[in-house]
Fold this sequence. Notes:
alpha/beta; single chain; six-stranded mixed beta sheet; Rossmann fold; 9 helices; 6 strands
Amino acid sequence: MSDPRPALTDRIALTRQRRRAQRDGMVDLFHQIAADEIHDRLAEVNRTFTAPALVTGFPDIWGPRFPDARVVADDPVLDLDPGAHDLVIHALSLHWADDPVGQMVQCRRALREDGLFIGVMFGGQTLSEPRAALAQAEAEITGGLSPRILPMGEIRDLGGLLARAGLALPVADLLPQRASYRDLFHLGRDLRAMGEGNAMAARLRRPTPRAVLARAADLLAAHSPDRDDPSRVAVTFDLVFLTGWAPSDSQPKPLRPGSATTSLADALTKLRKS
């Protein structure tokens, strides 16, 4: 039975964009920031991981950063064997998934008991400034609105996906980044060089009118100047990190309702007397 939900992502276009970016000189700054952050987080975990897996659309960037990991593509069906890994990293590709919960479920199934899942993706307020400028410009000039920038999940909603995927001890947090560009057109070139251009299935299939782009560039410059150099524009990129563990009996469990041995009233009375 086919999935009735419309596809968010044009996978063919996404693959083409990624290949072009890597061929022409990849802008990998956010990948390197994300990889550094994951290495720091793994160093804080008191464990040695011996069977890691890495899910990514950018193997040439992430593979060398995690040389011991088995690298698999971020396809809708992941090439992961059940219970084969003690660590699965989903590396800066999850925001393009039509079914992010399904991706996490597959990662959880690939984990051994008490194995660790770490995902990083763009989310939150990422590209909110050009999104607003393009929407206003298009509405003013054409009276319509076309999908141009991928919808970004809010951190609270993304954190909820971890529990839905069956992962224990879920944690979602955000690493905000601000990038400076000469103008909207500079940003667009950089997004293409990141492999993060518009690959939405519902995107406009004809060139955007020059008047729309010019108006959007003016709006972006007016509403989002770089504080250090007002002749440039500042744009948000939020890296959302998602962490969860494959369930295990050894993990801490929340107390059952009514199982506390001390009442709140007794605790407050003791506190006042101290």
